[in-house]
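Extended Data, record ATP-grasp domain-containing protein
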Amino acid sequence: MSEVPRYLILNRFGNEFGEYHRYLRPDEGRMAYLTLAAGTSVLDTANALDTVVVADLDLDTVLPAARALTGRLGPFSGVVGISEMDLLTAARLREALGVPGWSHEFVRRFRDKPYMKERVSGAGLRAPRFVELEPGTNPTLLAKEVVATLGLPVVVKPRAGVASAGVRRVDTVEALTAALTGLDLAAHECEEFVEGRVLHVDGVRVDGRFHFVSASAYVNTCFAFANGAPLGSVLLDHGPLRDRATDFAARCLDALDLADGPFHLELFHTPGDELVFLEVGLRPGGGPLPDLHRELFGIDLLAETFRLTVGLPPATPATAHTEPAGGGWLIFPEPRPLPSRVVARTSPRAVVDGIYAEVVPEVGEVFDGTGGYLHVGGTFRFRGPDEATVRCDVRRTIDCYRLTTTPAR
């Protein structure tokens, strides 16, 4: 076999996120894929070492397949799972196959919300107080204990959830008791409610420093998007708040020992001007964020994620990244009620000058509730001279965009 490194890829993407062949030069390595059937169309199967279609990407499914590939191809130099849902599985595969890279314990810091908050608060940084839920506890007693510790309102969330799925805010002891009844307590936590707008800091670190970093503020929240509201984001102007946010993020990442890798870190900016850690992922932000960063900053966050995962140097030097004056993005959720079929839609580009790219669904397109942050009711990306202008354009787009649907049968 060739001495060129071999990389094992876990793939669930059927879009450009699955174009892993773009991230390597031919002399840097070759790839073998364990992929869901829906992801095969974007893979470079012609040049792959092998492509194995699997029913799911659970560890019990992919480990035997990975061992079989190792037996045929030889040992792998790295295992990649870019999706947040595959990070822990990729870590388990590395350990089982003796492949170097991020360990399960390391990846857990970015997937288990109580664990990440323990590490961040242990470094002296403000993070929400939380209560881990003991299985078998009476829900009524547990609700009283949680409220006595955290007060009201309380946020109930999965320990390893993504995209605010399963997150609930409860405002009374009775509502909390109902929320905890029948819940898999071992897989959830309760967290104090923190008032404030949500910022996010995105980028990659190399040798313990920012190779690239951006800072933005959400328009609405991921939680609101999961419940049917549009979600947007606007780059922060250079200035004191941006500097504080990126410095706070750096200290959080230091607490988690992230020296080399990607991150998407969210934090609260409270009415009292305090920054409070929310959570962090060991991957780029979702939705239009990678596209916006490639187009405005000249950095491919997916390429950098792939390369840093397997220990390769960044695809672009820090000096190659540009600094836009202002930018942002906006997505509309899948139209309710579900399933639904599009019968008409408008384009706001005629009245919102800052929109430079839009993706709106075709008439006849069907939404079934599985689209996440990608198959959505409309996607818009913005440029502008500053944060305030872009924020105004995002708000105008929310006001004027119309998507008409009918129940799909």
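Summary. Residues 113 and 159 are 5 Å apart (CA to CA).
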